[in-house]
Amino acid sequence: MPRSIARPAPLAGQTLLNELNHRIRNELASVINFVTFKAVWTDNLEAKQELSKVVDLLHQHVLVHNLLTMPDGDTLVDAGELLRKLGLATSRCKLERMNIHLALSADTLPLEAERSWRLALATNELVTNAARHACFDGRDGSIKVELMRAGSQVSCRVTDHGSCVGRIKPGRGLRILGELANSLGGRIQRASGPAWNWFSLDFPLTDREQRANRAVAARRPRVGRRPKVMPAHLMSAAAEQATALAAQPQL
Fold first, then answer.
1. E strand segments, the chain
2. Does the predicted TM-score (pTM) go above 0.90?
3. What is the DSSP-derived secondary structure letter of residue 81?
4. CA-CA to 91 of 20 to 30 Å: which in 19, 63, 159, 231?
């Protein structure tokens, strides 16, 4: 009689994500190595310069992928700093070539690592949708990301100054956004006008995040405090240092 083979146990979601991330990194590294090889060996100066630009572009895509990789552990992460790094990498690898300026306003916001990652995924999807679907009518585009906290509530707003082409049909991207918002205990809101579109992801902080954000707020200097007067000898030294720095060439 043939031996029966037991059905393999399903892989955990974390294992599948790790395999996917590992495979994408390897494939991107392979492409970067191939283009770099061609750039080194070509004798055509113009081709060498263009291939070097492609290599730089691929490195920015690698950075975006790394920033959007699921984190390990349950440490607290500054979501504002994560979005700033993500915004810079996204601008370099995508938005600048589309003549779209990305502005980001984000305060220090400690979140649990996985929740900060989910926020970054949602923000990346919103910015990508704005760049893809907003119509800027031949002018340079602009997208603004604002990360704000009011008490125990967080709001991440993405606004573009383009007109919306037709009615947005619910697709995979919007479903993913809805699921990410639900996983954070929040919701997605949307509004639009003749020359702007606005999405907002609103969600509450956990108890641990609230304590961390209160600690951050307590360390901020209070407005209205009397400024400390710097002693004269220190003021003179600081002035000399500033003059020396100003004289240095800008790189």
1. 76-78, 100-106, 110-112, 134-135, 141-150, 153-160, 163-164, 187-193, 196-204
2. no
3. H
4. 19
